[in-house]
Amino acid sequence: MILKNFIGINSIYKLSFDKRCSSAYVAEGFNVMYVDDTDVNIFPDNTCFIIDENEKQYLQNLGEGACLEISQIGKIACAFGMTNDNTLYITDKCNSNCIMCPMAEPARKYGHNTPIPVIKELIKYMPCNMEHITITGGEPFIIKEQLFDILKELKLERKANTYLLLSNGRIFANHEYCKLFAESVPEDFLVGIPLHGPNEVIHDIISQSPGSFLQTTNGITNLLNSKSTSIEIRIVINQINVPYMIEIAKYIVDKFKGIDSVKFMGMEMLGNAIVNSEKVWIPYSDAFTMIRPAIDFLIENLIDVEIYNFPLCFVDPAYWHICAHSITAHKIKYSDACLQCKEKKSCGGMFTGTDKYLSDSVKPIK
Question: Is 75 helix (H, G, I), strand (E, B) or coil?
Answer without folding.
Answer: strand
